[in-house]
Amino acid sequence: MGTKTTEREPELLGQTVVVIGGSSGIGLETARRAHAEGARVVVTGRDAERLQQTARELDARTSAFDATDPAALDRFFRELPTPIDHLMLTAGRPYYAPLVEMDFEEVRRVLEADLLVALRVARHAIGKVRPGGSVLFISGTGARRPAVGLSVISALSVGMPALVAGLALELAPIRINLIAPGFVDTPLSARLLGDQLDARRKHLRDTLPIRRVVGPADVAALAVHLMTNTALTGATYDVDGGQQLVAG
Questions:
Q1: How many helices (H) and strands (E) does the chain have?
Q2: Cβ proximity of 115 and 167 under 8 Å
Q3: Rounded CA gap, 176 and 159, in Å?
Q4: How far is CA 40 from CA 15, 17, 43, 116, in A?
Q5: 8 Å CB contact between 201 and 190
Q6: Least C-beta-crowded within 10 Å: which of 44, 138, 176, 199?
Q7: What is the C-alpha separation between 204 and 219, in angstroms, rounded?
Q8: Tens digit of each residue's pLDDT (9 = 90 or more) over 138-195
Q9: Contacts of 197 (CB under 8 A, 6+ apart)
């Protein structure tokens, strides 16, 4: 007798997932996984050409704008059909500099891109995301250990969990969670590291407990789980392959 196989129903079938900052890296991979799980996806980013490719690949609705522009963000949400089920923000950028070399205008832009955009997106979620739906933010784990040049990003890494915990009470019954990756092998990482990328990958393969480098698909899998597990809100979830457990 042959074995009977049971196909599971896609976890996001018929739902709408919006990814702000989804034209590459973690955002794009999350949009792909959500699409594979049956979701309709809406993807935004600043690069119109990459968004066109995303639209073709995922049959996605796309919108090209800078999420740090309050007017553009307001317009996007005003025109977004409701209700939506899940909203993910991956926009933002790291900033590394010792205090004596710090460009305070760039610090202001980073705080705007990470903290204020998150607050604006959270407020826009009210009335747009259905009750029981979810909002996801991205932070990081790499800057939790103090080091010269990491003051700004460390402050954000430590502060975002507190922000999300508070917002979970304010947004309820919408759920809100934070994903905190360590090093993730993305195009952004490649741009930041340049010719040091291969050495960084090798170091991580040699030292991480999982003996491999974390990729965008690992973060996307966690993101979709947080969308579908309705018991989870107000918490921070690390995905770093054990990077915090080892030196370097």
A1: 9, 7
A2: no
A3: 15
A4: 6, 6, 10, 27
A5: no
A6: 199
A7: 17
A8: 998 866 777 888 888 888 888 999 999 999 999 999 999 999 998 898 887 888 788 8
A9: 189, 190
Query: Looking up tokens 């922000």, which residue turns up?
Result: 163
- Which residues touch 60 (CB under 8 Å, ≥6 apart)? 31, 35, 40, 41, 42, 43, 54
Tell me the residue type at 241: G
Rounded alpha-carbon distances, angstroms, from residue 130 to 39, 137, 243: 15, 17, 35
Q: What are the tokens at 96?
A: 């590394």
CATH 3.40.50.720 for the 16-237 domain, yes or no: yes
By C-alpha distance, which of 92, 136, 124, 123 is closest to 110?
92
> Tokens at residue 68, please?
């740090």
Domain residue ranges in the chain: 16-237
Residue-wise burial string across 164-179, b where 16 or more C-beta atoms lie within 10 A, e elsewhere: bbebbeebeebbbbbb
Structure-token pair, residue 130? 């259905």
205-to-183, 193, 239 alpha-carbon distances in Å: 12, 16, 15
Cβ proximity of 24 and 191 under 8 Å: no
* Inter-residue contact 155 to 162 (CB < 8 Å): no
